[in-house]
Specification:
With about 260 residues, the protein is of the alpha/beta class. The protein contains twelve helices and seven strands. The chain has a seven-stranded mixed β-sheet, with helices on both faces. It binds NADP nicotinamide-adenine-dinucleotide phosphate.
Length: about 260
Amino acid sequence: MKIGIIGGGNMGSAFAKGLRKNLKGACVVISDKKHAGKKIVESNIAAARNADVLILAVKPQDLAECLRGLRGAISKNCIVISIAAGVKVNKISRLLRHKFVCRVMPNLLATIGKSISTWYAPGFNAGQKLIVKNILRAVGEEIGVKSDDYIDKASCISGCGPAYVWYFMENLIKAGVSLGLTEAVSRKLTSQTFLGAAKMGTGVAERDGGIKNLRLAVTSKKGTTEQAIKIFEKKKMPAIFSAAVKAAYKRTKELSK
Ligand SMILES: NC(=O)c1ccc[n+]([C@@H]2O[C@H](COP(=O)([O-])OP(=O)(O)OC[C@H]3O[C@@H](n4cnc5c(N)ncnc54)[C@H](OP(=O)(O)O)[C@@H]3O)[C@@H](O)[C@H]2O)c1
């Protein structure tokens, strides 16, 4: 199976690595501006020609130009997968003049094979959907959804999500230092705590009440953690999370106009 990738940056490279490692029979060809220079249109066409699957991994602002250059170069049954944030399936279909377009929202964890990718593929048959799933499983896990809007919403959780987690880590490190720990110790404590908590919480989070029960196991009545959680509640942490995610969603809508 020939898989062309347009754009060899963070995400394009992560997909190439995952596909080469995990998808049997995949022949991956990448085209990127950095290497192709002025011959970028020819290079993109070479990656797209006779491809069974074409992954579009350029920035949203570069997508329209890229699609115009690819018009007419793609086989009729090629599965086009766009990972560009905020760009709807219809727009890609129209600019490319191509029927089979799937929109995907992966995340940066694709770099280590741990992405969670949501995908929307209107008009795809079961065989085509299976190809999409297998491509995405090469970089992590996947969930099929029923609309562009669902992708927009999901992207505010899982697309942006790694940044939220790392922001929390940054602040926990700072809080440790403010208590008098050395920065090195605070970093190590935070890093290992997140690793363990993520491992122990994975899967458990998918069960009703699972993640809350884990938290409660650490939060003894009248204990120290309880005091910290009380502050999170008093400062309205749940409302802060909700407002932050809504702001991300609003921005997604502005960008996809
Ligand atoms: N990074 C994330 O966490 C993340 C998560 C989910 C989805 N995404 C989506 O993934 C896409 C790629 O993001 P990224 O972080 O991988 O960006 P990136 O690192 O900037 O990679 C994009 C690459 O495409 C190249 N390029 C630009 N125009 C091109 C063209 N016409 N033909 C071929 N290559 C071209 C760029 O070259 P130049 O730099 O020389 O322009 C760059 O090397 C974006 O649409 C983004 O919305 C990213």
